[in-house]
Amino acid sequence: MSNTSQSNTTPNSPFATTDQQAELRFQNYKSQDAFPEILPALLNSADVYDYVAKTGMIFPFDKDKLKPASYEVNLLGKCVYCNDEGKKQIEYIDEGKEFILRKNSIAFVTLEPIFRLPDYIALRFNLKITHVYRGLLLGTGPLVDPGFVGRLSIPLHNLTTNDYIFRGGEPLIWIEFTKLSPNRRWKVLNKKASAINRQGQYIPFPANKNKLSDVEEYLRKADPHRSIRSSIPDAIQDAKNSAQAAAKTVQIFTIAGTVGGLISASIVGYSLFDSYKQSADMVQTTNSYTNAARKELYDFQKDNSKNENKISSLEKKIQELENRIKELENGNGKAVIQSPVPKSSSATIRNIQPGRDRTHI
C-alpha cells in the first residue's frame, strides 16, 4: 500500500516540505485571504504558485507541473474496479507500477496530492488531452468546493476496444483554480463597505465530507450494496448472446430448410419417377399395341398375298379354259362346213352356252 509522496522541494523552498507543514499553513489561511489584492477569477500560474506556498493547498507540489492556468496532477494510490465476473478488485498503484485499464471498463483511480482548499478557492479538473485522443473519458466538470480537504478519486472510462497501460506517478489530469468573489469571512472590509447591510451568509464546506478521503468510502456512499461497473461488457455479452441465439435460430431454420428441401426433392423425385414409370408403361403398352397391329397387318398382308396368288392362279386357269373353249369353238365350226350336221345336232350345239360343263358337247 502506498502512502502520499513526500515533497521534492529543497529545504529553502517556499513550499511545505511535509504534510504537517502544509496542514499548519492551511489552518493559518483557511478563512483568511493571504492575497486579497488578487481579484476573483481563474487563477494564473503565478497566483497558483503564491497561494500554494502560502496556504499549503497542494501537497506535494511540483512547480514544474504548472501551466499558464492549470496544474498537472499524477496518478498514484488506490484503484477500485470490477473484473469480468463483476467482482470488486482493489489495487494500489505505487510509483512506477503498471495498471491496465481494460477495454470497455471503468476504474476509480486516486490522484497523488492532498488538496486543502481555502474558503475562497475552488477547483475543476479535466483529463489530459493525450488520454482524450486515446478515446478515454473522465467524469470531468465537477466542481470541488472551497474547504475540501483530502485526496481526489475520479472515474476513468475506457470505451474503446483497446487496453491502456498507466503507471503510478505519471500525469493524468489538469486542474484549474478559481477564486471566489469577496466575502467578509476571509477579507477585512473598509468601513464604507462594512456599513452595507448584508443579509447573505457564507456556507462553509461540510466538515464531515472531509472524512471521505478514500476512494472506497466514496463508492460505498454512492452505492453501498452494489459494485459500480461499466454496462458495456454486459451489453456486449447480451449482443453476443443475441447473436448466438440468432445464429442458432438460423442454423435450425437452415437444417429445417435442408430437411424440407430434401423431403421436397424426394417427393418431386418420386413424382418424377412415378410419372416416368407411368410414361414408360404407356410407351411399353403403346409399343405392344403397335407391334400387335404390325403383326396383324403383316399377317393380313401375308394372307392377302396368298389370296392374290390364288386369284392370279385362278385367273390363269380361267384364261386357259377360255382359250381352250375358243379353240374348241373354232374347231367345231370347221367341222360343220366340211360335213353337215344333222338338225338335231345343230340345235344341240346352239343350246350350249359358255360356262357350262364342256363335257356335254
UniProtKB/TrEMBL annotation:
Question: Polar residues compositional bias: what residue ranges?
Answer: 341-351
The ranges of region (Disordered) come to 332-361
What GO MF annotations does this protein's record show?
dCTP deaminase activity
A GO BP term here is: dUTP biosynthetic process
Q: What is this protein called?
A: Deoxycytidine triphosphate deaminase
Q: Which organism is it from?
A: Aetokthonos hydrillicola Thurmond2011
